[in-house]
TrEMBL record:
Keywords: Hydrolase. Residues 220-582 form the GH15-like domain. It comes from the Bacteria. GO terms for biological process: carbohydrate metabolic process. Pfam families: Glyco_hydro_15, TREH_N. This is Glycoside hydrolase family 15 protein. One of its GO terms (molecular function) is hydrolase activity, hydrolyzing O-glycosyl compounds. Residues 10-155 form the Trehalase-like N-terminal domain. It comes from Mucilaginibacter rubeus. SUPFAM superfamilies: Six-hairpin glycosidases.
Amino acid sequence: MSKHTYDTGIIGNCAFLAHINKNTNVDWLCWPRFDSTFIFGGLLDKDKGGEFSIRPEGEYTTNQHYLENTNILITEICPASGGKYRITDFAPRFYQHQRYYKPLMLIRKIEVIEGSPRIIVKCAPVSEYGAVKLSVNRGSNHIQYLGGEENIRLTTNIPISYVFDGQAFVLNETKYLAMTYGEPLEAPLISTADRFLAETVQYWRTWIKHSSIATYFQPFVIRSALALKIHQYEDTGAIIAASTTSLPESPGSGRNWDYRYCWLRDTYYVITALNHIGHFEEMEKYFGYVTDITFSEMERYQPLYGITGKKDLVEHILTDLAGYMGNQPVRIGNQASEHIQNDIYGQVLISLLPLYTDHRFVFSERKDSVHWVEFLLSKIEHTIDEKDAGIWEFRNMANIHCYSNLFQWAGASAAEKMARTIQNQELIDKAISLKERAAAHIESCYDPVRKVYTNSAGSSNLDASTLQLIMMNYLDPNSQKAKDHLVALEKELKTPNGLFYRYLYTDDFGKPKTTFLICAFWYVEALAAVGRLDDAQREFGNLLQYSNHLLLFSEDVDERDGSQWGNFPQAYSHVGLMNAAYRIAMKLDRPIFL
């Protein structure tokens, strides 16, 4: 088999995300929210997923790139019969009337580059994950699609009959397609689309200019930051793992998950990445999302929540969809929401720490401080001796996991700092006591013969998540113990080409067949942390080959041929890249002219 990569780019405006294929089709678009039914779902079923394409007659080649420092996608098409044209796809986003304008609107601008190409525009949105075909009504300058939750309208200056009938026509002037959900576009099409495009370009370029991004592999970090930004559902502040569902971790594996949700276990890494690039607005919105969950969650946290904090994410299988490249099942919802993961409370405590230690936040933002710290510490206290599913969400295996106890240790450490800030001795004492208990569990995972920490107490299995013992400074990065631990992990879990397995033991679905990309970026961070800076730079540069043509990364990579697998793009892979690049840049600490 040839190397598999995902041939799509993403556009978005923090209200929705769309995947645009190099072949011009909108392969994936969920409306009105990230976790809604798809309107276009060709990723999972080319027949039932609908279509929105702008293709020439006959054979053609394409080239796709982003408009520099934006989330605006350019696709250039060269028909074999001659001519050339360009499609600019974007989701409007800009500041007006003292708020961000981010409508449920997809705009496609079609421009002639040379010649007189003949093109065919096809538009057939669906609803209920392809189970409902929408009825089509034509107007004078628009087509209306009815039968879903809300009306969808396509407004265009292309003759309606050509779009309605899927008929080829000569492209001899700039054409526009504006698809809206619910509220139609009532303003003039051409001038509005061009103004929205100019405003959106300005928004994204200003956002990047206001980012603190070091020069180390800067184009990759910029693209990762832009990708992460549009994975935030701005209405609530939630950041999703990916905009897709059921893209397999490896062909035929059955590991096809719905990732359109917010995992609290990744909170620390996401907040760290946003902090590194200096984007406080996104951090504050995310704080607000976590706060809302905390005050509504009186018992235990779930590992993941819906983008509105919804708890009920019942997993079910859509049997009528073919699946990506025939891979089934297609899952909606995620059973991992029912799992026990005890690292979460520490994740949240660490994530809230900047409110207490970073003086760019004002004191009034530390609401209900005693209640916060007390509540989360009590969660750690009640779960610190409990077996859980661990970071990788084993469905039928529970252990005292080293990683879970590491974040309980780190969370208690953060709570101690918070308690000192608010001068509460009782909470200080409780935090110190819990740190000691968590450390005892972590040490029960140490194998003195191999000089490595295993994945759980009483186990001999190694796990990439224990790399975090070094980055979280549980192990002094300068110590021999940290260096020995890293050597043992890389000996067993690193591939010859620099990728990293999560683990190599059998789980509920057998042995993993692909590597987990964020683990490779963790490995790079660990190398930098222990002072192996040359190794860190070499391994980091090597990992960049596993992006697609737009510098977008998947969740998993097949170490045999470098193929991309898993949900795409994976926000946390980009977070891993951002954090690894930052750590190396800080270690290098040299003048820009050298």
